[in-house]
Every structure is written in C-alpha cells, then in structure tokens.
Specification:
Rossmann fold; 255 residues; two-stranded parallel ribbon; binds zinc ion; alpha/beta; 12 helices
C-alpha cells in the first residue's frame, strides 16, 4: 500500500479534529489537491470525542463550501472503535513495550497495531515540534519529497533502535512545523478561519470551555495559540499548571 501512496494515489491520515491534523488535511486538499482518506479512532471513554467529531463535521462543511473542488478529494471519514481494534494482543503488547522503553505515548502502540490490522503503512501522524516524540525520533528521520509534497519517515537502517518496529507504519508530514507556522500558511492559503473550527481540548468543561490544563491546552497556551483558550482555561492553567497546584496535589496523594 505504501507504493500506492508514494505514487500519489491518496494519503491516509489520522484525523483527530485537532489543530495539527486538521491543518494537514486542509493543506493536502486545498493547497496540494491530493486525495485524502481520513481515519478517526473513537475512544468512547474520551470526554472530547463528541466535540472532536463535531469539529470534523464543521471543517468538512466549511472547506467544501469555500473550495468546492475539495469535495472530490476528501473521502468519507472512516471511524473505528478503540475497543474493537487491536485483536492481536501479542503484537499490541510488543508495541506497548517499545513505547515504555523509549518513553513515547502509549497511543502510538494502538495506532501502529491498527495500521497493521488494516494493512496500511505510511499513515500520516501530524506530530510537530517541539515535543517529546519529536525529540525522540527527529535524529533518525529521513525527509522524502514526492511531487509537490514532502514528509518524514523513520530511517530503516537504524539498528540500535526498536522504534522503527512501531513507527514503520507512519509518516510525519508536520515534524518541522510549529503551530504558528501552520497558522501563517493557513492564512496565506485562506483557510485559517476553517482551521479555527478544529478542536483540541481533551477535557472540555461543560462541553464548551477549554480546560486549560490538558496537554493540548497547555501546548496551545505555551506555543502561541493561547487565544484559542477562553478566560476560564487561562485561569485554570495559571492556578493548576503554573503555580504548581497539580504537583502539590500529586505529592499529597502519594503520601
Ligand atoms: Zn484542555
């Protein structure tokens, strides 16, 4: 399947409804005019699942309205349930071991297992800099240019690292982008307001307000997109993350 993708047939991508993957989808269909197959992994336990799917719907409507040619390019979203995937527990556990060894997010083990199950390699992950995963993989990546597009993959010949077993399933188009660079590019190509419809908070308060304390909220505040978090979120960020209430609580809980 990777050959199909490299021949430019279509791009497979995990779409979370968040800033990074939404930017990449818009970049692919609006700017680069590529056919895109998005995947969404539904975790029913995730509080933000409804909000993420709503954001995806809103982005789709808006982009097709402004750029009608994208209707042909954006394939219907494939939604799969986290509880029903990764039936090969041996494979899954071997991936989980790798995430533990290299201290990368455990979600990558599920995503890799899923790619294995559906028989796809080169599925896009919209990981960007800075971040733990970026630091962990950037030195082992290779930049690949295909036509008007480019992305990073993990080098296959790095024998020292088992990360390749896990990350062979993915490619990373946004590895060297910052959130601000995505914003600027979106402005240049006139889809910045559509990108604004994306979602990013994992634990919205009353289904409406960004929490200010989950990883995506902290990232937004610390990487120049604080305007996307309302006052409540900033207040929570200041009290819980900045002034260390969270650490204090953890300390108390551990005693
Ligand atoms: Zn949040």
């Amino acid at each position: 399947m990777i050959d199909d993708q490299q021949n430019n047939k279509h791009v497979n991508i995990f779409w979370t409804g968040g800033w990074d993957s939404t930017f990449r989808i818009l970049q692919l269909i609006v700017q680069k005019k590529k056919v895109v197959q998005p995947y969404y992994i539904l975790d029913p336990k995730r509080k933000s699942a409804g909000a993420e799917l709503n954001a995806i719907k809103a982005v789709k409507l808006a982009v097709v309205e402004r750029f009608p040619y994208t209707k042909e390019l954006l394939r219907p979203l494939i939604i799969d349930n986290l509880d029903e995937m990764c039936t090969d527990k041996v494979l899954l556990n071997s991936f989980i071991e790798i995430t533990k060894t290299y201290n990368v997010g455990r979600q990558y083990s599920w995503l890799a297992c899923y790619c294995d199950e559906i028989g796809e390699k080169g599925v896009e992950l919209s990981t960007q800099k800075p971040g733990e995963l970026y630091e962990q993989i950037v030195k082992d990546t290779k930049h690949i240019v295909v036509g008007n597009d480019s992305f990073y993959v993990l080098e296959k010949n790095n024998k020292q690292s088992k990360l390749i077993n896990l990350f062979q399933y993915f490619r990373f188009p946004l590895l060297e982008y910052t959130k601000i660079e995505m914003q600027e590019e979106a402005e240049r190509f006139k889809f910045d307001d559509i990108l604004e419809l994306s979602w990013f908070c994992h634990a919205p308060k009353w289904n409406k307000y960004k929490c200010g304390t989950c990883t995506p909220c902290i990232t937004a505040i610390e990487q120049g997109l604080g305007r996307r978090v309302q006052f409540l979120g900033h207040l929570r960020y200041y009290l819980i993350v900045k002034t260390g209430l969270r650490k204090l609580r953890e300390k108390v809980m551990n005693h």
